[in-house]
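Data card: per-record layout.
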Amino acid sequence: MGRYINQEEALAVLDACEAAGLVNQPANMINPGGMCNCCGDCCGVLRSLNKLPKPAEAVFNDYWAKVDPELCTACETCMDRCQMAAIDIEEDSAVVNEERCIGCGLCVTTCPTEAIHLELKPEEKHAKPPASGRKLMTRTAKLRGTSLIPLSMLEK
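The structure for this 156-residue chain is written out next.
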């Protein structure tokens, strides 16, 4: 099901995924056990993120997209690429909703006028990824207002 690849092959895979409009998703932990490249049509993680009112809160990414309105031609290419519906056109320029932007960069790599770039968020918005998958799932459950305690344990 898998095989070792060298760095050159890995970068080629990432380039092909980016060209296809797939969001690179390393596991949101300090030492990720893997990563995938997905679209919002078939990926449960992206579909779930997209349903949140503020998807940016659920991912650990210290960057978000910023638009230079002087360079933007409102061509809507960025809107088509955004998996989180974080970009709208207002007054002849793309505008990024920072609460929805997960910082994937798909809008940046296809902007024909190079009007979009990824920008480091202010320090108070930085979030260190959890150390383990268990801590990640606990944090995600709290964000969703749910508990990870099995229902059978709550009855006792």
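Known properties of this structure: Strands lie at 23-26, 35-38, 63-67, 87-90, 93-96, 116-120. The longest strand covers residues 63-67.

See the next section for split statistics.
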